[in-house]
Amino acid sequence: MIRVTVVLFIFSFIRILSQQCFDDILLDGSEKIDKYGIDSTGNWWAITKPYTNRFRLYVNGKQSDIFSGVQDIKFSRDGKRWACYAKDDGNYWHLLTNDTTLYLRAFRVGQLFFTPDSKSLFFTYTTEGRQTLSGKIDNEGNIKFGSSKDLDIPDATTMYISVDLKRKAVVTNRDGGTYVRLGKDQGPRFDAVKAIGYWNDGSFIYAARLGNSWEIYKDRETLSEPFNRIIDAKMNPEGTIAAIAFERTKNEQVVLTLNDKYYEPLMSRMYDWVGNIQINPILEIVAFKAKKNDNYYVVYSNTEYISGKNSTPPQFSYDGKDIFFVGCDFDCFVNINGRKYSLNSEIDLKGNFVKKPGEPSIAYTTSSSLVIRNLEKNTLSASKMMDKMSEPIYNWKSKRYEALGILGERLYFIYCK
Question: Among the four 26, 242, 396, 405, which has the fewest Cβ within 10 Å?
């Protein structure tokens, strides 16, 4: 669990409020809490230790059986489904979901992911016979397992599924090389591969290196000139926009954007350094951090916002209307849509910051509380003090900031309006 430690030097003109924050107890402390967290969709989970080396999973209050091991949980994009792997006393793995438990008799488990539309769950696992197999559960609860003949692939393999679920790509490391298999087409040998994802037309986007040169590929077609190294890459879940940061030559770095609206890939300005790519969750627009001649920027749709040397990656509100980042140069500040607000205090930039759309406020967790700062009114709301805190979220359904906290051995649900 990542914790954010923030040291606040609160000036006298900042009004501190507490009546806007509330807390409800979730777990009473009868079982020791091992891990806990809250998903961006508002689902909370906890893994407890009722006995030594025994674990139980709680999701939104629902508890599982006791296992000898439980892996971290995955949630679907719409927040309605969840899944995780759990190991029994015989060292075999089960698949736990919100409505199904499968005994896989798996020797090892691998990937576990929901499709972008949240309608299907894919999972991979390895049998005692060292066959790596896959399965799928659709939103009706129908279960389908892949055939061993089609899916018998080495352990060092990562699987990707197209948006329409009709195509499968696997990136496999074997015999000292890396291969991108598209369906039954094995493809050429590369020295390294960075998978980016499936495009909306069913083609697979990836970067591959042969010798000292990288290139961007769409299936087997090259989309870019050769370059020195790849820095970062992101694609939206719908496969309609992708951005790749790479180094063309020494001290010449750019971001390449792929979008069907462009006649050809769009190249950014050249910078000394680029990275921390983020894609707007609603609009097909890219943001990233950049440096040029000792000047530091957050670049959004070719607009450069001065960020200072020390700043967080750009972030978006859930509806995509606000872009914001937090920085500390001589003083700490928040930049929202290009407008800079002074914080008048020191803040740890390693934390996770969240924002309610359309309002000049941000939220974050310290080591002991959930904090909301209104940047125009100079007010601060803080929750009850805890021993530990999770990262915060902005829950668009309930329209409030939320987090989890531990006090003693009790787990609390904390929310601020």
Answer: 396
CA atoms within 13 A on the CB side of 158: 12
Closest CA to 46 of 30, 32, 35: 35
Residues 347-406 have pLDDT tens digits of 888 889 999 999 999 999 999 999 999 999 888 899 999 999 999 999 999 999 999 999
DSSP label of 311: B
Question: Would you say 20 and 413 are in contact if contact means Cβ atoms under 8 Å apart?
Answer: no
CA dist., res. 126 & res. 136, Å (int): 15
| Structure tokens that stand for 301 in this block | 């749709």
> How many of the other CB atoms lie within 10 Å of CB of 129?
9
Structure tokens at 213: 């040169």
pLDDT digits (tens, 9 = 90+) for 83-114: 999 999 989 999 999 998 999 988 889 889 99
What is the 8-class DSSP label of residue 150? H
DSSP reduced 3-state for 151? helix
Question: What are the C-alpha distances in Å from 274 to residues 194, 325, 333?
Answer: 17, 16, 22
